[in-house]
């Protein structure tokens, strides 16, 4: 179990305690009016945990509270972990970011791009550009998700038996094979679309390293960083938070959990973790790839990953496929596994330029702010996250509580 508690007086790291209390007051109202089952917030600055709070229940019916060691399904907060894992192989010279993915996964040779027509008889053309490793890391490969219901290609994913987060009976290798057999939504590198790309990265890790993804993540990230509660199955089911959805009447309803040990080791959405464990991961990033003597990445690699890699310095608003977002994507680029704030004024969000972040489908999110030496984690368990906007409100509440002179 990962123990966790405050490690400083908030005043010592620049926070006003009365202003910090506004955070809990704001989000507690969401539990009181039934918008949230429960939540946990962790704020760290200058390496010290300055704010740690929890409210509500991890299991509403059983009356079990959210506690510091509660286990959460972090969904797409898995993506930065997988991206970091892939970059450990990059640092060993095992691949180049410009390598065609087909060098390692031959099923991605001779890809075709959707041009028009129905899912049963699509018109396609040969892709002019191969999918490269950096396309996967930046979600510019032309892949998609089956749950969008926005394009014919999305429909083709569902028709290929790839519906839902854990397609029945399919492991990672078979899912990747089926994705590779479908047309791309667009030419690789020409647009941004949130997708199964990080799951393909997971398979790339398996092929290059010669070990399954769960073992690789354990050896390269979880064990070195002391993330003892993180993995693809719960270390203690009694500590798991129940997953909830929203009924048509607005009430929360429990959702049957995914398999305790899924066949699909999804590097894009499959991990379970705790606030303490993910805090260790964010601290490693903030400190340039090292935490408590364990170096996962070199500092230059972390810096490179957290720059905007979209062509021409574009932001997601102009380069991305407009599907969903809690707040404006103006002024926000994308790095190798993270959204990156380029211009907080353009985004109209209280943040620091250079912040990087991501979230998960069940209302989880984090950000790392190197300029303020700050990390923030929010964890809950209700789907979809887009009906419970977090990032904008939590940002403004965190930064209004910082009262020391800006550096």
From TrEMBL:
| Species the sequence originates in | Bailinhaonella thermotolerans
Under the GO molecular function aspect, what terms does this record hold?
hydrolase activity
Return the Pfam families for the record.
Answer: Beta-lactamase (PF00144)
Q: Which UniProt keywords apply?
A: Hydrolase
Protein name (Swiss-Prot/TrEMBL): Class A beta-lactamase-related serine hydrolase
InterPro entries per UniProt:
Beta-lactam-related, Beta-lactam/transpept-like, Diverse_Enzym_Activities
Where in this chain does the record put each Beta-lactamase-related domain? 24-385
